[in-house]
Amino acid sequence: MMQSLYAGVSGLKNHLIRMDVIGNNIANVNTIGFKAGRVTFKEAMAALLRGATRPSSEKGGVNPMQTGLGMAIGSIDNLFTQGSLETTGIITDLALQGDGFFVLRDGEKMFYTRAGAFRVDSLGRMVNPDGLIVQGKMADALGVIGSGTAVGDITLPFGQKTAAKATSEIGFTCNLDSRESPLGSIFDSKSLLAIEDGTDDINGLYAKGNADSTLSLTPGDTVTVQIGATSETYTYVDIDSGGTSDDFHTINDLIAELNNDFSGTITASIDSDGALNFTNGSGGDITITITSSNATLQSSLGAEGGVGIANGESHLTDQFSHTAIGGDLLVSLRDSDGNSIGLVATDVINISGSIGGTGIGASSFTATATSTLTDLATAMESAFNNSPPAGGNTIAEVTIDSDGSIKVGTLAGAPSQITSVTVNSSGKPVFNTAMTFMQTQQPTSVSYSTSITAYDSQGGTHVITFTFTKDATTDNTWNWTVSVEEPATVISGYSGQIEFNTDGSLKSFNYDTGSSFRFDPGTGADSPVEITLDPGEIGGFNGITQFASPPTTIASSQDGYGMGTLDSISIGEDGTIVGSFTNGVLRTLAQISLASFNNPEGLFKAGDNLYQETTNSGLPLIGTAGPTVHATISSGALEMSNVDLAQEFVNMIVAQRGFQANARIITTSDDMLRELVNLKR
């Protein structure tokens, strides 16, 4: 019988096997996790017609002569190339990128798969569609997976409770505005004037009489004085040049010019009421005419149309007053209208008022002929600082303002604020009116607050409020306090100071008592709750800072929480399953295990996208994605089949042509045998 018949039969048979593999590949083109198969052929045994001979000196060597006996299957391989990923959005759908297999258990049998379409059964176990249980390592109650934890069933404890945890630390991320400054209350009297002695700038003097107005001069304004045929003009300047230069800055400057130019005719001087006095010393009657380019000054001098002065008589101008200063005598003071306040030596001035609404008690000051406005201010300051409720604490400052008023101010940040000021003297109505004190500034503190909810050991919530107040006396220092809503009560560590470096970084954070904030919850929970306050790194900018920027006072974090139940899960690239509880706690529940093999092509296909180990696959190396198995896990996706349809169709054409060619071998051999049989006819 012809051997070619058997060769053709082997070709037909084995090409049919290749078509079986190709058909299976195409059928599973949309099967998740499917790995395509591949058939390779090999030559079957060969028949020896003549052996090989070696060459000799007389004759060359001869090659062997053999005929083939057909072909056989060399291998059917599984191609574990990466399949593309399809996004599903289902958390428990898992796709592997890289090496490895998911590990599944069915009773005592272990299976391996690339198909990650997993679900959770009624017992909370993660299973595949056929109920095989996904394997991994479970975490303990604290969310820790120990190094010695055995691989077992992954069970997700939906409905599981997590115990409450009392807050033990509160962190801050905020800025305290360095530009802000605290303010105290300010009370201000009416403006005060004092009798002019001729030494002050004429500009700004108050003229009582004809003008009843404040003088407002600019350099270049002139005053012209004419007596008889003699006329002299004087110019107002910022600085008097002295001598006989015909300029002036003060009343005394003008007096000196007049007495120089009109010597023997008049004598100019300033009297005890601040009026400019022109005395006739000529020996006869004179007429004096005074004009000025400044209308107010001209009105105050009062001789525009000419004034007759008999020998030995005088012409008086308006009475001039300057804004009161601390060194002015009390007996020379005037009110803002230029009227004398009427104080004389031995007058008793009564001082009273209140701090925080509580009276300071009566105090008095007796004026003398040499008492000054500063002396009165000092007496008032002493009355407020040394009488109850101040009790000797410096909370008030009394100063003379630029408008001549007496200003009574509370120190910024003082614990108590002045709420009223009263100064009077019996029978002195002008003085009493001038000493009417009005509040011109309300007290304000630079204070920022923030609140955060903390927890006790039973999960009870407590709103804690932090207040930061800028220190009024020390630069770059803030005071802080903390309070808690009832029924909780604070125990210790509820106040302190924060200091900042000049660059705005944190310098120190101190407690007035203790080293943590402690409060009694008042709810039956463990008492007390002790909380460490974390202001950030000393010298750093990661916590509380002080910059010239808007305040952003935030208690940004706390580590406590109430009781919660497992609500949802997430799965990371390394297979770690993290549970999200209703109280906001995130805790590790388990980690999915993966298996890798030295020879994954040696695995046995068990159907249903499952594989089993064989003696040639090697034992599975069980580990996790990343450290031990070079793979990552994508949650919400599935790995698709790695079948290449284009390649499979080409392979199918090749198999078909191979089958046809082998069929021709058989038909041709049959024709030859038929001719052989026909030889006997």
Features:
mainly beta; 5 domains; ten-stranded antiparallel sheet; seven-stranded antiparallel sheet; elongated
Number of helices: 6
- SS strand fraction: 35-45%
Number of domains: 5
Mean pLDDT: 91
What oligomerization state is this entry in? single chain
- Could you describe the largest sheet, including whether it forms a barrel? 10 strands, antiparallel
Description:
- 14% of the residues lie in helices and 39% in strands.
- It is mainly beta and 681 residues long.
- The chain folds into 5 domains: 3-75 and 647-680, no CATH class; 85-163 and 565-639, no CATH class; 169-180 and 445-561, Sandwich (Tick-borne Encephalitis virus Glycoprotein, domain 1), CATH 2.60.98; 193-323, no CATH class; 327-441, Immunoglobulin-like (Sandwich).
- The strands form 14 sheets. Strands 7, 8, 11, 12, 13, 46, 47, 48, 49 and 52 form a 10-stranded antiparallel sheet that branches.
- The radius of gyration is 55 Å and the shape is elongated.
- 32% of the residues are buried.
- The mean pLDDT is 91.
Quick summary:
The protein has 681 residues and is mainly beta. The protein has six helices and 54 strands.
List the helices and strands and how they pair.
Layout: H1 3-27, E1 37-43, E2 46-50, E3 65-68, E4 71-78, E5 85-87, E6 94-98, E7 101-106, E8 109-113, E9 119-120, E10 126-127, E11 133-138, E12 152-153, E13 161-162, E14 169-172, E15 174-177, E16 186-188, E17 192-195, E18 206-208, E19 213-214, E20 222-227, E21 230-236, E22 247-248, H2 251-261, E23 266-270, E24 275-280, E25 286-292, H3 295-301, E26 307-309, E27 314-323, E28 333-335, E29 348-355, E30 358-359, E31 363-366, H4 373-386, E32 396-400, E33 406-410, E34 418-424, H5 429-434, E35 438-441, E36 447-455, E37 461-470, E38 477-484, E39 489-492, E40 495-500, E41 506-511, E42 517-520, E43 529-534, E44 544-547, E45 555-558, E46 564-571, E47 576-581, E48 586-592, E49 594-596, E50 604-607, E51 610-612, E52 621-623, E53 631-635, E54 637-639, H6 645-677
Parallel strand pairs: 14-43, 15-44, 21-22
Antiparallel strand pairs: 1-4, 2-3, 5-54, 6-53, 7-8, 7-11, 7-49, 9-10, 11-12, 11-48, 13-46, 14-45, 16-33, 16-35, 17-27, 17-28, 18-19, 18-27, 20-21, 20-25, 23-24, 24-27, 25-26, 29-30, 29-31, 29-34, 32-33, 36-37, 37-38, 38-40, 39-42, 40-41, 42-43, 46-47, 47-48, 49-52, 50-51
Helix pairs in contact: 1-6
